[in-house]
From TrEMBL, chain B:
SMART domains: AAA. This is Phosphate ABC transporter ATP-binding protein. The lineage of its organism: Bacteria, Bacillati, Actinomycetota, Actinomycetes, Geodermatophilales. It holds the Pfam family ABC_tran. PANTHER family: ABC TRANSPORTER I FAMILY MEMBER 17. PROSITE patterns: ABC_TRANSPORTER_1, ABC_TRANSPORTER_2. It comes from Goekera deserti. The keyword ATP-binding applies. GO terms for cellular component: membrane. Residues 5-254 form the ABC transporter domain.
Length: 316, 259
């Protein structure tokens, strides 16, 4: 209000400028600009290093069939694993968050919340070994069952892997890895659902679940989406766990349960970079540029989804 | 639809703290009953115990009886969810669901009752409820807009429309005008006068003029000191309370000597 009034007032009235305000404003602005510079630097590096691969003739790219043919299966692998992880983790995380905020006794809720947060503190290389040594062998029976019974779906076309080192196992391990991110953010927004609206629902004769559906879930929706997108970002970029578990390197396929899986962009870079030379390095960086763009698009989509019904978000 | 409420020997506890003690009162159907008293005297707690909304707070419980039309609300086989479906409530701060449109807000309670309704029936219900809440003319062109875009007084009338859409037997109002300006307050008071032909209305208010204006009967709650339980000091026809109360404390309160 005061800002719009300012021009009509006599110019003698100067606002007092306090040093504390100026230092804070300056450092906040500086931090914001710094982030933009870093981001621009990363983008500039990726583009300049990827350029040779983008312009090189097709037969000089590793694989000999051009850049698109090289990167396309990697993109598919990256998206397959991350989307599978998201599909598994999101409902589970929302359930955990609701249980902690509205169902569990206070003490149980605190312990459970702590344990879920602890999942985020485990290094991804540990997840990788756990996936390889524990999850993969135990998934083999399911792989066989899926190949026998669900093979009409392209995702379970078979033949079933005997090692379990498949995109399916990777998706499950990634789901566990992104679970704490999604559930922590969901928990936060659920617990902030206004008592005003929760009571409104209860006073209309809502059961606890109906109250959650009327007053908590709609309020927390944008938070859940934001959490899911953060989780998706992590799953897309996850390197070590995927590199350890997945027996990748095959061409594009939707089959989640066979021995030949497409690799993911990040794990492919990690595995190939040490031995890459010349144009091979540029090709890997070009694939990194693609990952950068994918992550950017995912985040922008998330923002768009969150803003789409801003009128109804409860923030006004 | 309106029902008589009989309260006998009601004690209300928060865990071990006795908040309200020994309330005995009969609330007449098709009338407005006002509850007045200083802050913290337990009038809101008492109001919320009439539709078991106080149980939302962990550790809250009651002793005694609240009987509506022969049925004890605290009987062992009574589901609080069903109690709240019969006894509507309007809160101090307007609380339409911000994620729902005006239309969806009005039918929110009806949808909970999971009675399948045709679209046309639903439309009629929205219209009659909003007309009943004197809001129809102001919102009929923007039913699909969010309820949170309305003014405070309109939001409160939307909440009343939402409460009466399920045809409750009793309407409880917890300081429904304290967040509103005088014009909106007048609109709500006019509305209450219309609604009392169909519902039993109990209103908690800090505004004694409001109690005097709208109610037939008035209950005065008070407490002896901080940490002491609140009590129903006097319950009489409003005219008597404001002209010739039985109790000295009531007279002191309404004449502004304390509170």
């Amino acid at each position: 209000m005061t800002a719009t009034k300012a021009p009509t007032e006599p110019p003698v009235q100067r606002t007092v400028r306090r040093p504390g305000d100026r230092i804070f404003a300056g450092s906040a602005k500086g931090s914001g600009i710094f982030i933009l510079i870093v981001l621009a630097g990363v983008a500039a590096f990726l583009i300049s290093e990827a350029l040779p691969a983008l312009t090189a003739p097709a037969d000089e790219i590793p694989g000999g069939e051009g850049l698109t043919a090289y990167i396309a299966p990697l993109i598919l692998g990256t998206l397959l694993g991350a989307v599978l992880a998201l599909i598994v983790a999101t409902p589970l995380a929302v359930g955990i968050a609701l249980f902690i905020t509205y169902y569990a006794p206070r003490r149980v809720a605190a312990v459970l919340g702590y344990v879920v947060d602890l999942l985020a503190a485990i290094p991804s290389v540990v997840y990788g070994f756990w996936g390889l040594a524990v999850v993969a062998p135990r998934m083999v029976p399911f792989h066989e069952w899926a190949a026998d019974n669900l093979s009409f779906l392209p995702f379970f076309a078979g033949p079933a892997s005997t090692s379990g080192r498949t995109m399916f196992t990777v998706g499950l391990v990634l789901a566990v890895m992104i679970l704490p991110i999604i559930s922590a953010i969901s928990r936060e927004v659920f617990s902030q659902a206004p008592a005003l609206h929760r009571e409104a629902a209860l006073a209309l004769g809502a059961t606890r679940w109906e109250m959650i559906r009327m007053a908590v879930l709609p309020y927390g929706k944008s938070g859940v989406i934001a959490g899911a997108m953060l989780g998706l970002g992590r799953a897309l970029g996850e390197t070590m766990a995927v590199a350890i578990i997945l027996s990748g390197g095959a061409g594009a396929t939707l089959n989640l349960i066979s021995n030949s899986n497409p690799s993911t962009i990040a794990s492919n870079i990690a595995l190939r970079f040490p031995e890459a030379t010349g144009l091979g390095v540029n090709t890997l960086i070009a694939s990194g540029l693609v990952l950068f763009v994918i992550t950017l698009v995912v985040n922008m989509l998330a923002r768009w989804v969150v803003n789409r019904r801003a009128d109804f978000s409860g923030a006004n | 639809m309106a029902k008589r409420i009989d309260v006998s020997d009601l004690n209300i506890y928060y865990t071990n703290f006795l908040a309200v003690e020994g309330v005995n009162v009969s609330i007449e159907p098709r009338s407005i009953t006002a509850l007045i008293g200083p802050s913290g005297c337990g009038k809101s707690t008492f109001l919320r115990s009439l539709n078991r909304m106080h149980e939302v707070i962990p550790g809250a419980r009651v002793e005694g009886k609240v009987v509506i039309d022969g049925q004890d609300l605290y009987g062992s086989d009574v589901d609080p969810v069903n109690v709240r479906r019969q006894i509507g409530m309007v809160f101090q701060r307007p609380n339409p669901f911000p994620t729902m449109s005006i239309y969806d807000n009005v039918v929110a309670g009806v949808r909970l009752n999971s009675t399948r309704m045709k679209k046309s029936e639903m439309d009629d219900l929205v219209e009659t409820s909003l007309k009943g809440a004197n809001l129809w003319n102001e919102v009929k062109d923007r039913l699909s807009r969010p309820g949170s875009g309305l003014s405070g007084g309109q939001q409160q009338r939307l909440c009343i429309a939402r409460a009466i859409a399920v045809e409750p037997e009793v309407l409880l109002m917890d300081e429904p005008c304290s967040a509103l300006d005088p014009i909106s307050t007048l609109a709500i008071e006019d509305l209450m006068m219309e609604l009392k032909d169909r519902f039993t209305i109990v209103i908690v208010t800090h505004n004694m003029q409001q109690a005097a204006r709208v109610s037939e009967a008035t209950g005065f709650f008070n407490l002896n000191g901080v940490g002491q339980p609140g009590r129903l000091i006097e319950f009489n026809p409003t005219e008597k309370i404001f002209s010739n109360p039985d109790q000295k404390a009531t007279e002191d309160y309404i004449s502004g000597r304390f509170g």
